[in-house]
Amino acid sequence: MMCRRKYWLKYYIEEENYQKVILLILEYQKEAKLNGEYADITALHINITDVFDLVEESLDSSLSKMCVDFNFDKYTDIQHAYNFLGKSQSAINQLHMHFTATINTVSFNCVKKYSNVDKQREYQHVCKTVSIDNFMVCLMTLCKSLLKILKSYFLIFKWHKSVDVPSFSKDAKNSLISNENDIFNKFQNDIRKIFLDIENKIIIFIDVFDFISFEFEKLLEILNIVDSIFKIEKKVCEKFESKLHKYILEKFVIYFDSYHVSRLEELRIFLENESWKLCPVKSSFKITQLREFQSFKYASNSNYIISIFKSLQNKHENNVFSTDSICDGLHFLDTTLDRSSEESILQTYEETWDNNIVISTNVKRAVSRIKDSLLLKCSTITKNFLNTDQANPPLFSNKTGLNDPNLLFGLAERIVSTESLIFLGHQYETFQSYLYSVISEHEDKVYLNMFYNNTVLLSVQLRKPIYMVSISKFFDAKKILSLMSRVNWELKDVMSLHNTYIDVLIQKMKKFQEKLEEMQNCIVISDEVHKTIWEGVAEIITHTMVEGFSEAKKCTNGGRALMLLDFTQLVSKFEGMTSLRPMPHQDFVSTYIKAYYLPELNVESWIKNHTMLESPISKFALTLSVSTSY
After folding, report:
1. Mean of the pLDDT values across residues 480-495?
2. Are the C-beta atoms of 619 and 606 separated by less than 8 Å?
């Protein structure tokens, strides 16, 4: 009978059926106590002591398996057996050692599966032998396996927090409950070590590969994978400083710095070879139709965005440690925008702006900021652009016709490029709310708002200064001022005919109108662009006339009347050619002329109240003329 029990004892140990093992041991002990005077029974009792050692070895092996694949019933049997042996506390200590060893073993086996190493090597060396083609699948397998270990850890922790196991005796439950605080603190303290071990294995593997050589889509896949671990860390350890999170951030910063510079250089090449011709695009076109921006398709639907976050939140709340979380599609990963497109174009046109053209302060600041941050200075242009986060400034192609008066000094090309930039700005505006909703950090939201307010929204304000470049060159203010300087404004009688420089200006306007109509056969000029162009013409002409009037050495009442006559003739012709009523900026000229009739004492205060007189020459000339006329 005793031999038969011994056979079944070994069998149940091999099968890891510890409930049966405990029952048989109890029977052995009972028999040994009742029949202790017999020698063979005493020898058997000694063998039972050896069996205890065998049971402990088997329990330790079974305990280590729980680190990878937790089973509630199996773990209950294991703890029941440890409690029977009086080693519940030591089992907890041993369990945490097993988790550390399991992380090392599982990590090594996962990576080795995709490596070319036959011999036993260190983990870091094995990582280096994984090919770039196997990187993603290896990373996916590694993270899934490590998350599975993490899941087992918390399921075991949950088991110890409950301790409501029907198969346990009252004494066994009380024994476990008495150690509850120690066990709880042990699990709470060691979770940080578990996370660090997992992070170190992932970091060692990722660090072997250079992110710069990856495509952006692959980078998003990497972020999507490790994000599952970030979420669990954040939920479980509120003040835990993730080493992996910091490492990934540094890798991404390096990648985007390199990506930014390479895209800048690529854009510079495009700009230098761009012909600035109209590209046929359907009126229904949206940026979300491009592959790179398809993830923004539902950007305007706030309910859709909220539903994504709620579904992700509910999923993690219901099953925080699910390994399926690695494969979740995070729609909000495509938040990095290439800002270099519009900014480099701004810089390109900034080089051609005339200093006499009025540009808003915000646009000036934006262009200066972009120029300083994105473009190399002249003294450093010859250096290798890869050593900085800036690129060489683009040079315009001679084919663009920027210096051809018959092409209105490249006005068509300026319209195409500027309206393209404005169109791009409008497309960016469509997903502003989407980007804002997926950014959690307040500081990042501030930067996003600054980008839209100080860059994207300023694109519309570029129309005027860019178109004014062509307009100012076409009307040639220096030539008009030269003609005006020959006019005698010191007249005693009122003249009935206007001066010849007005005829020159009118002919210039007619020719400009003809060229503009010819241009409309090649490109579409919207009403808004058309209005901006003619407002620019009016501003150039009116400012030129005021500048010419201010250069008069002496001016009588007859001369002032001639000025009004000249300007009235010009206004009538301008309004006849365009649909603008009244002519823009005409008050600037008429008010300036009428100021000559003010008493000397009122001139200074009048100038202070009329900030339109930006030119110091105009202010000085007005004051001097009034002074000398009395």
Report:
1. 88
2. no
What would the pLDDT profile of 532-576 be if each residue is shown by its tens digit? 999 999 999 999 999 898 888 888 888 889 999 999 999 999 999
CA–CA separation, 371 vs 390, rounded Å? 9
- The single-letter DSSP state of residue 327 is G
Q: Tens digit of pLDDT for each residue in 269-297? A: 888 888 888 887 777 887 778 877 776 66
Tell me: pLDDT of 446 over 70: yes
Please give the pLDDT value at position 341: 32
Name the nearest CA neighbour of 354 among 516, 266, 477, 532. 477
DSSP state of 279: P
* Amino acid identity at 388: T
CA dist 622 → 164, 495, 603 (Å): 98, 22, 8
- Residue 3 has a pLDDT of 55
The answer to whether 509 touches 476, Cβ cutoff 8 Å, is no
Cα(468)–Cα(541) distance, integer angstroms: 11
**Looking at residue 326, what DSSP letter applies?**
G
CB 497 within 8 A of CB 509: no
Report phi then psi at 375, rounded to 5.
Answer: -115, 140
What CA–CA distance (Å, rounded) separates 90 from 82? 9
- The tokens for 429 are 């505006």
**3-state SS class at 410:** coil
Nearest 10 degrees: Cα torsion 188, 189, 193, 198: 0
* Between 422 and 162, residue with greater pLDDT: 422
Query: Model-level pTM greater than 0.85?
Result: no
pLDDT at residue 4, rounded to an integer: 56
Give the pLDDT confidence score for residue 235 in this predicted structure.
76
Whether 629 contacts 556, CB under 8 Å:
yes
Average pLDDT over residues 600-607: 65
Q: How would you class 122 by CB atoms within 10 Å of its CB: exposed for 0-12, middle for 13-18, buried for 19 or more?
A: exposed
Distant-in-sequence, close-in-space partners of 285: CB < 8 Å, separation ≥ 6: none
Dihedral of CA atoms 41, 42, 44, 46 in degrees, nearest 10, equals: 170
Q: Which residues of 523-559 are buried (b: 16+ CB within 10 A; e: fewer)?
A: eebeeebeebbbbbbbbbbbbbbbbbbbebeebbebb
Is the four-CA dihedral 229, 235, 237, 242 of positive or negative sign? positive
Please state, in angstroms and rounded to a whole number, the distance separating the CA atoms of residues 425 and 337. 12
Cβ atoms within 10 Å, residue 246: 12
Q: What's the distance, CA 150 to chain centroid?
A: 31
Which tokens go with 123? 């983990």
Phi, psi of 391 (to 5 degrees): -125, 165
Nearest 10 degrees: CA dihedral of 610, 614, 620, 626?
Answer: -30
Mean pLDDT across 386-410 = 75
Give the Cα separation of 550 and 226 in Å (integer).
70
Q: Mean pLDDT check: name the lowest of 125-129, 160-164, 458-462, 549-553.
A: 160-164
Rounded Cα distance between 199 and 134, Å, is 20
